[in-house]
Amino acid sequence: MANFLISRLLYATVVLLGVSVAVFFLIRIGGDPSALFLPPEAPVEEIQRFRHLMGFDRPLLVQYFEFLGRAVQGDFGMSLRYEQPAMSLVLERVPATLELGGMAFVMSLAVAIPLAILAAANRGSAIDRASLLISLIGQSFPAFWLAIMLILLFSETFYILPPSGRGGWQHLIMPAIVLATYSTAIITRLLRSSMIEVLQSDYVRTARGKGVRESRIILSHALRNAAIPTLTVIGLQVGALLGGAVITEEVFAYPGIGRLAIQAIANRDFTVVQAFVLFMAVVIVAINLLVDLSYGFLDPRLRRNK
Amino acid sequence: MAGAISTAVTVSMPLVAAAQSTSTVVIAQAADAYSMDPAKHSAFPTANILFQIYDGLVTQNEKGEIAPALATSWSNPDPLTWRFKLREGVKFHNGEAFNAAAVKYTFDRALDPNFKAPYYSRISQIKAVTVVDDYTIDIKTDKPFPTMLLSLYEASFPALIVAPTYTAQNNGADLGAKPVGTGPYRFVEWKRDERVVLEANPDYWGGKPSIAKVIFRPIKETRTRIAELKSEGVDIAVDVPPEDIASLESGDTKVVSVPSEFLYFLAFDTTRDTPLKDKRVRQAINYAVDVDAIQQALLNGMGTRIALTLPSNAFSYDPSWKPYPYDPAKAKALLAEAGYPNGFTIPLMTRKGRYMKDSEIVEATAGFLSKVGIKANIQYLEPGVWGQVSEKKGREGITFPGWSGRDPNLVWAPLLHTGEYQSYYSNPDLDKLLDAGAATIDPAERKSIYTKAAAIIKDDAPHLPMVQPPLIYGLDKKLSWTPRADGMIDLRKAHY
Fold this sequence. Notes:
The complex is a heterodimer.
Chain A: H1 2-29, H2 34-37, H3 44-54, H4 60-71, H5 86-121, H6 126-140, H7 143-157, H8 170-199, H9 202-210, H10 214-243, H11 246-251, H12 257-267, H13 270-298, H14 300-305
Chain B: H1 2-12, E1 24-29, H2 44-53, E2 58-60, E3 66-68, E4 71-78, E5 81-86, H3 100-111, H4 120-123, E6 126-133, E7 136-141, H5 164-168, H6 173-177, E8 185-191, E9 195-200, E10 213-218, H7 222-230, E11 236-237, H8 245-248, E12 253-259, E13 262-268, H9 279-288, H10 291-298, E14 304-305, H11 328-337, E15 344-350, H12 358-371, E16 374-380, H13 383-391, E17 398-399, E18 403-404, H14 408-416, H15 428-438, H16 443-460, E19 463-468, E20 470-476
Parallel strand pairs in B: 1-10, 1-11, 15-16, 15-17
Antiparallel strand pairs in B: 2-3, 4-5, 5-7, 6-7, 8-9, 9-10, 11-20, 12-20, 13-17, 13-18, 13-19, 14-19
Helix pairs in contact in B: 9-11, 14-15, 15-16
């Protein structure tokens, strides 16, 4: 177990280093923010003067190692636009994103798990076909379109939900539905097919032969085994719910990290983009680690092998 | 039925109903503030918020003229000095007194190169600010600077006056988070990316504003802003697309609009060896594009058609100036005369989604050009890339750059003077006139200089002037508020 953790930590370090290189150089390909930050009539000498003041004219490698040296001490630099520490701008917005992502996550599990179980247990039935249709539609709906449709329906036509902002639970409903749609579809589809596979296996047949109740077979014997492949996907979906809420947060004017990130990219606010990407990388690495560890709890054979 | 729904709304949604209050105005604009320090940002949405909190020395009145604000009068003792008499008895929100020292402090701070003010270039002509007495100040320049007042009003962001003692605290960090100014509204709260809340300043020197509470909310998506307006979550929604006007003209909402002082035009690169070097080709393009039809179809006929690249409210603009008429036959004849009877192919560089209907207008223009044989290859550049290309003087062929400015010296000098960063044109005769206009303070003399310059620009056609696009706002029907051509939101006179 200790070996496993150490190797995973080393792996995480390599991943984060790679991510830092990628984000640092990619965001700079499109040029630095000097021209965007100054008024349109600023003469070229003024742009160069500003660039020099900000240090954007130094060699990229020098800038990278300086960034890395500070980042390992927890200093991710100041945001150009906000003149505030970049990482604290990101962390400030995490609670809002967690609230929205959490609600969407609960929603998608609450729909996907019962739906997948019912579909798998009644293969070929109307509910099974409905689950397939829901998965197909859910995965192919563009988030942007769905968001606008919900706003038109619930805010502009029926006046029952506020179209934007953050406040009470009412503000969370529409964005959470939009966010949950895709995850629900994916989880339903995967869990359904794993369940079907498991339900055809020998030990399920044996259990049935022994006269175990069908509900027990499904919930206890089959679901536990079908959960393992699905868990990986659920883990990935948690990452997507947190980092992938960009469009949803933008449309619903929700003050989360996705909205901060998209603005920072448009403004070439390098430090904020770096802080956001590294934060998300840490989150995703951590989730993957947790998913790996959870396999051991679900599958005793994996525990013994370690 | 409608009654039943609205009752349900007030019962179940107290949060959303905030904007229904007649003492509060909620404004939805595309972005949140970046800072509460007027000298530390470069974004219009931020400026709209800060203009309620701070004042400049001068302001713009309802007729669009420069008018007194914290300065009550001004004069030029000599061409290099602007002397301002300051308003007496004005206090900042924290009780600090406004006086000549505050003005000096404001400009000295923003002009310090190490301060890195993004809008430094707007005020960089100011070489010194000297206190004459407590309520008199001299602003000195190296060269005559006829557009000084436009560098001192609210659209010149770092010219808003800050309180010296408070601003110096914590190296300006306090000001950046909790602003203190002399303006009609005092700062209450800033929840990032959610809202900025302001309350009326009862001691405002211009009279206590009628609206007690002002809330700015950042809502990037246009559809969401409109939904908020319709569901009474906001009272002013900025940048309404022309196609939504009809639906907002009914019910509890209305639309107000004003031609902006922004300029839509095509610029021709005459520095490279292309057909655009030939004056006849540039004139042909002016004849070939039916700008009136584009304005009618894409902007609902709103905005102001311009004859030259200068807003109609700018100094020296003459309403008798006429644009080239739409005449494709004449365009073809000119092209043939210039040696391009079958037209030619040319790049058309622009950005997409930067300005209202920009890509639609560019595409319609390319359609008109193709009718006279000119094939325009449209290239859309991401704004950051556009900046990079511009810095290397890399704009090629025809471009759709967009510009604004209320004086020829702020429009023609940067866009048409030889060697300027934004200029892709050179004409020694025009250069002489532009130099003279920049160095003259006397308005009558300047006007005659720019009238001559206008004749050259019309004939030599370095641009295809199009329109000043409209600024369109959706409003709560009960609210009375007048939009401004420069896009700044001023709530001093707003009322229900």
